[in-house]
Design brief:
The chain is α/β, with parallel strands linked by helices and 205 residues long. It is 35% helix and 20% strand. Strands 4-1-7-6-8-9 form a six-stranded mixed beta sheet, sandwiched between helices. A three-stranded antiparallel beta sheet has the order 3-2-5. A two-stranded antiparallel ribbon has the order 10-11.
């Protein structure tokens, strides 16, 4: 189980797999896994939320939208031998399995959850959805590297489709800061910034 995608073993459908790293231990049936053991991330079956045991050895979690920055964070923590948080791959909008893992983490003592996503309509809505979920569960949620200063300082950007800008505009009333201000920048410029474009600036969580 350690370091192996469960889908490759025929044990879980890929859509229900949870990619994690850091101080999280899991056991289900005869399998056991530690999120610090692979030097990167590991895949957990979504069924672990019903039939397995999860232990979070930290009170912090970081949800990352894209795979490249997720893997970079995992490898950076492994190289340093320091695991200040559990990392969860968001993969765009969180699946119901991802939501369930976040809720489970909060139930077992995780109190601080950070989200890092693209600075575009879908990334902002992913972040706000997660913040709403966490806040309703009594924990603290924040967004990192998703603010106007980071947006303006990005090394590159891309043009956003009008339909996505319209979607963002419709959701403006529910956005908290700094996401609301960031949304204003995006709507004014019509451009977005992917996580990969700000990796060189570093990330503090």
């Amino acid at each position: 189980m350690v370091g192996v995608r469960l889908a490759e073993l025929g044990l879980v459908e890929r859509d229900s797999e949870l990619l994690v790293f850091g101080p999280i231990r899991c056991s289900i049936n005869s399998y056991a896994a530690d999120g610090r053991a692979t030097g990167s991330w590991l895949g957990l079956p979504g069924t672990v939320l019903q039939g397995g045991t999860l232990n979070f050895e930290t009170n912090c979690m970081v949800v990352v939208e894209n795979l490249t920055p997720f893997e970079l964070l995992a490898k950076t923590c492994a190289k340093a031998g320091a695991w200040p948080f559990v990392g969860l791959f968001g993969g765009g909008y969180l699946s119901s399995t991802g939501d369930a893992l976040v809720r489970k983490a909060i139930e077992t003592g995780v109190r601080n959850i950070t989200v890092w996503a693209d600075m575009d309509p879908d990334g902002i809505l992913l972040a706000q959805d997660l913040i709403d979920l966490v806040s309703s569960s009594g924990a603290l949620a924040t967004a990192v590297a998703m603010d106007s200063d980071t947006f303006r300082g990005a090394s590159r950007s891309y043009a956003i489709q009008p339909s996505r800008l319209q979607l963002l505009s419709e959701h403006l009333p529910r956005l908290i800061q700094p996401l609301a201000e960031l949304a204003g920048e995006i709507l004014s410029s019509g451009r977005g910034v992917e996580q990969e474009a700000v990796l060189s600036e570093g990330l503090k969580v």
